[in-house]
Amino acid sequence: MKLAAFRRRTEPPGVRHVGLVMGDGPDRWIHPFEPGTEMVPLLAADAARREAAADTAAQADGIRLRDLVLLPPVYPVAMRDFLTFEAHVDGMERGHGNPGPPEAWYEAPVFLFMAPHAVTGPYDDIPMPPDTARLDFELEIAAVICRDVRNATVEQAGSAIGGYCVMNDWSARDVQSREMTLKLGPSKGKDFATTIGPWIVTPDELDGCRDADGFLDLGMTVQVNGVTVGSDRSGHMGWSFEHLVAHASRASWVKAGEVLASGTCASGSLAESWGRNGTLDPPPLRIGDVVEMSIDRLGTIRNEIVVPAEDAAPPVPPARRRVRQET
Amino acid sequence: MKLAAFRRRTEPPGVRHVGLVMGDGPDRWIHPFEPGTEMVPLLAADAARREAAADTAAQADGIRLRDLVLLPPVYPVAMRDFLTFEAHVDGMERGHGNPGPPEAWYEAPVFLFMAPHAVTGPYDDIPMPPDTARLDFELEIAAVICRDVRNATVEQAGSAIGGYCVMNDWSARDVQSREMTLKLGPSKGKDFATTIGPWIVTPDELDGCRDADGFLDLGMTVQVNGVTVGSDRSGHMGWSFEHLVAHASRASWVKAGEVLASGTCASGSLAESWGRNGTLDPPPLRIGDVVEMSIDRLGTIRNEIVVPAEDAAPPVPPARRRVRQET
C-alpha cells in the first residue's frame, strides 16, 4: 500500500489529508481516507483494518496528482541518520587520505540525530541555504516507525517499521566540514532541509524485494538536471533496517513517528566524487539545479534549488574570549 | 517564577500536572495550576496572564515535595546540545594531545541534535547503560523554547526563551569514543538518559544575574557522593543563550518545546579530568553513585545510578561485508 500526505491546490497551507496512492505514472490518483485519518496510526493499524479503510477510500473519488501538493508523509518526532553503506564510507575516507573504513564502522551501526523540523515535501523547492558554496545532496532510503519500541529484538524491530520512502539529506559540505572539526554534529551543515517522500510504501508491498539475509534490495538512482550522477542498491547496506531499529532501541526509546535513514549510498552524493577526484567535479549545486532521486517501488522525489524568499538572520558574533578564572 | 511538572505519589505513572513552586528548602510546596495547564503555552503566555494563573494557583492548597514525583519539566520536541565553554573544549583537546580549541570553535557555536525521548525527571534513578565501563556526567545549563522562531535576531531569540533549568547529559565515554571515530554523532554514547530540572525558572527571575554583555552568570557545581568534583559559572560561555537560539534559527526552525543546552562547563565532567590526568581519576560512575548538580537560582537535580530493571536487547551483528559490485 502507498500512503501519501497532501492538500488540494485550492486549500491553504496547513491543511493536511492522508490518501491512498493508486495507478501509475501520469494516471496516478490519490484517494483521500476519511477526514481525521492520521498517517502513523494508519501504519500501526493491523493489516485488515488498514485494508478496509483503503477499500473505502478507493471507492470514493480520487484526486489527480496535478491538483494537489504532496506534503512530507510524516512530520518526524525524531530523525536518525545512519552510515550503513560501506562503499560510501570507503570513498569518503579515501578522500580524507585514509585507507578505508575504520574498524569501528564494522562493529555497530553509528547514527546521528538530525533536525526534525526541516522536512520538506517531495516536490518542494529548496531555498539555497546561507554560508555555503558547496551544496550537495545525499541519496538515502528511510524507514518510518509506527510503534514505540525499547530493547527490541530484530523481529520486534521489524514490526515497528510502518513503511519506507526516499530521502534526500541536503548538505552544505563547507559548513559541515568546519563543524566536524569539533568532532560532533554536524548541525547547521544539514539543518536547513531534508526531503522525504513521495509517499510511504508499506513493508508488505516489498516482500519480494528482500535478499537471502532479509535485507531490502532496491535500486537507487540520483539525477542532476536529468543526468544520472549516482546509483546503488539498498542491499549494499551493512545492516538491515530491522538491525538499525534494534540497535537504536538498545536501552533507549525509538518512538512512533520517528524516521530512521540509511545514510548515503555509494555514489549518492557529490562529496564522494569530490574526494575521489580531488576537485569539485561534478560542481556543487547551484540555483536552478533540479535533483531527482528514485528508488525501485518507492517512487521519485524531485526538487529545484531556488533563491531564498527570506533573508537569513545575521550571523552571531564569534565566541567571547575570556581570561579564564578559577571558580 | 518557578514552574514544575509533577504527579502525586498516589497517582499512576502517566499523570502529569503543572505547578507553581513556592517556598524554599524543606519548606517547599508545589501549587497546581488549573487542570489542563500545559508547560510550554504557560511559558509563552504574556506575563500578566501567567501571573494571574499563578495567583490563583498560589491561593489554593499546595503539595509538599515529598508527596509528589517531579517529572521532566518538558518532553522536548527536539534537543540541541552546544559546546560553548572554552575551558572545557581546551581541557578535552589537550587530553587528545592538541594545543587547545581549534579556530573553528571560536567562529560559531556548534551543536548536535540529541535523543529527545531520553529525558528523565530531576530525581529519577538512572539505570546503568549497557556496554560501558566509563559512565560519566555533564553539567550543563539549558533553555526551554516557548515559541517558534526562524531567522531570529538576537532580540527575537530572547523572547523565544521561556525559561532555564539544570541539565545532566549522561555520557558513556567508551561508547562515545568509538562512535566519534566515524566523525558524527555521538548516538548510543548519549541516548540512554538526559536529566533536566528540577523545574523551569522564567527569565524575569534572573534579571539581576546578567553580566555587562547580557550573559547569564550563575554558579554551577556538581558533586559525586557528596564531594564537589567540578564548578564553573555560566558567564564563561562563549555565547549567550540568545546567540545560540539566533544561530540555530538561521535558515531553520527552532520550535516551541525544544531544549537548547550550553554543553559541559569547565570541570563539569569526569572525562576532562581523565584527559588532564592521563588516568581514570576520579573513577567512572558505578552503581550506587549519586550525582548532584546545582545551579544558582535554578535548583538541584540528584540521581542515583542503579541496576537496570530490564535486560538490554542483544547487540546487532557486525556489518555484512560485501564484495563491492558496480551497479
TrEMBL record, chains A, B:
Gene3D superfamilies in alphabetical order? Fumarylacetoacetase-like, C-terminal domain
Instruction: Write down the Pfam families for this protein, in alphabetical order.
Output: FAA_hydrolase
Task: Give the keywords, sorted.
Answer: Hydrolase
Q: What InterPro entries does this protein's entry cite?
A: Fumarylacetoacetase-like_C, Fumarylacetoacetase_C_sf
What molecular function does GO assign, one term? hydrolase activity
Among its keywords, does the record have Hydrolase? yes
Report the residue ranges that make up the Fumarylacetoacetase-like C-terminal domain in this protein. Answer: 81-306
PANTHER family the UniProt entry points to: BLL6422 PROTEIN, FUMARYLACETOACETATE HYDROLASE
User: In terms of domain of life, where is this protein from?
Assistant: Bacteria
Q: What is this protein called?
A: Fumarylacetoacetate hydrolase family protein
